[in-house]
Design goal:
single chain, alpha/beta, binds uridine-5'-diphosphate-glucuronic acid, about 15% strand, eight-stranded mixed β-sheet, six-stranded parallel β-sheet, binds nicotinamide-adenine-dinucleotide, about 425 residues
């Protein structure tokens, strides 16, 4: 099938590569000229494991352009995968979705399926339809579909090619058949709904996962007060299939470009309908509290922060990505800096991006360099390579044997045996 994807970001680029792998002819469109020029030369704008190779393997079936008209003309299905960031008041900013909808409408000369892939508030489908109708200069038939995306950064390709489910919100039989045909090779469960239900499925799913994280973080706080270990509690809970093992890692709270904005957008959506989503407001409060608690732990461990050098591992909001949007690590480092601490930091993938937002820190070449002359080692992202550190060597390099672990990367007993004072989350 001929398809276009507007927005060549974490979602658009990964889905483009995956649809090309499934033998579709894909046009990736973005208004960022530098990004498109780079992609044409094979330069990756983001770090996502396996993406570069997948794009290379399928380069005959995927092309890049800034020209929406060209994409619309050559495609039957057009995906909208532009950003939907949070506005100051927490609502989703839909200006890119609107702009793109208008441009698609103006360029349509025959039947098209217009697919919302971006995460959008319920009723956006109605607005897209209205916008397209108002700009449908060639008066052609079209359908709007909501097809939310559930991939995670860091495992995006695996998630996209082996999804737990595919949600298709659609009011037309014709469009439903086209979408089913497109996804058929994945052999995943397909859930067909109306457009509004599909839109809510996405916000409800992300909010549920965020709730699970805040729940386990609340349990971690009780574990700290009672002397229990949240890792063992999570294990014992997770074996219950109704609860499940995933998303029970306590830590410094969720970050990223999705959960924070989607939870706050869902609170605002509910508010608009007159419903006070107290549960999600508490989820947000617990999440913010985790970062504040963690700073207090560091203060308690090293006392005065002013003039102390702290070694920090991790800048991305989670491992296996270079994404630092809404990363708890960045916020925590800025707070420590504001209190006068000197920061030495290392992250395997995000150093270049971090330099744009984080000044006055010493960027180190590796984890061991971070430890040199630091009063403590602070873990903010659970990269696999941090788990494999030689703790004896870490101890020799640090000024004092102290680890404050925001992601429960190390085993407290083992760290204790080596002679560390180890402070984790909920244990
Ligand atoms: P991103 O910022 O990485 O990419 C968005 C792209 O859209 C950018 O390259 C930008 O230049 C482009 N763009 C913006 N306006 C445009 C316009 N008018 N014309 C052409 N291109 C335009 O964002 P992302 O992380 O890929 O997220 C995109 C959407 O998908 C969001 O709604 C997000 O909530 C949702 N989502 C993201 C993920 C994820 O893991 N990142 C997962 C599921 C859903
Ligand atoms: C999340 C969802 O998992 C995806 O299904 C969804 O498609 C995506 O948002 C989206 O809508 O954009 P992502 O943000 O890439 O994906 O990353 P996650 O793996 O969900 O992690 C989000 C945050 O929660 C990270 O900061 C991570 O460290 C934190 N987290 C996750 C925890 O603190 N504990 C956990 O147990 C799991």
């Amino acid at each position: 099938m001929n398809i276009s994807i507007i927005g060549a970001g974490y979602v658009g680029l990964v889905m483009g590569a995956c649809f090309a792998k499934l033998k579709n002819k894909v046009i990736c469109i973005d208004n960022d000229e530098k990004k498109i020029a780079g992609l044409k030369k094979g330069i990756m704008p983001i770090y996502e494991p396996g993406l570069e190779e997948l794009l290379k393997e399928n380069r005959k079936r995927i092309s890049f352009t800034t020209n929406i008209e060209e994409g619309v003309e050559k495609s039957k299905v057009i995906f909208i995968a532009v950003g939907t960031p949070a506005k100051e008041n927490g609502e989703a900013d839909l200006s890119y979705v609107e702009e793109v909808s208008r441009k698609i409408a103006l360029a349509m000369k025959e039947y098209k399926v217009i697919v919302e892939k971006s995460t959008v508030p319920v009723e956006t489908g109605d607005w897209v339809e209205r916008t397209v109708k108002a700009n449908n200069v060639h008066n052609v038939e079209f359908d709007v579909v909501s097809n939310p995306e559930f991939l995670r950064e860091g495992s995006a390709i695996e998630d996209a090619l082996h999804p737990d489910r595919i949600v298709i919100g659609v009011n037309s039989k014709k469009a439903a058949e086209i979408m089913k045909e497109l996804y058929e090779p994945l052999r995943a469960p397909v859930i067909i709904t109306d457009i509004r239900s599909a839109e809510i499925i996405k916000h409800a799913s992300n909010s549920f996962l965020a709730t699970k994280i805040s729940f386990i973080n609340a349990i971690a706080n009780i574990c700290e007060l009672s002397g229990a270990d949240v890792e063992k509690v999570a294990l014992g809970m997770g074996y219950d299939k109704r609860i499940g093992k995933g998303f029970l890692n306590a830590g410094i709270g969720y970050g990223g470009s999705c959960f924070p904005k989607d939870v706050s957008a869902f609170v605002r959506i509910a508010e608009k309908y007159g419903y006070d989503f107290e549960l999600l407001k508490t989820v947000e409060r617990i999440n913010a509290g985790q970062r504040a608690n963690f700073i207090r732990k560091i203060e308690k461990a090293v006392w005065v922060l002013k003039g102390k050098t702290l070694g920090v591992l991790g800048l991305s909001f989670k491992p296996n990505t270079d994404d630092i949007r809404e990363s708890p690590a960045i916020e925590i480092i800025k707070t420590l800096q504001a209190q006068g601490a000197e920061i030495r930091v290392y992250d395997p993938q995000t150093m270049a991006k971090a330099k744009e937002v984080l000044e006055g820190v010493q960027y180190c070449k590796n984890a061991y360099e971070v430890c040199e002359n630091s009063e403590a080692l602070i873990i903010l992202t659970d990269w696999e390579e941090f788990k494999k550190l030689d703790l004896e060597k870490v101890k020799r390099l640090l000024k004092s044997p102290l680890i404050v672990d925001g992601r429960n990367v190390f085993d407290p007993e083992e760290a204790g045996k080596i002679g560390f004072r180890y402070i984790g989350v909920g244990r």
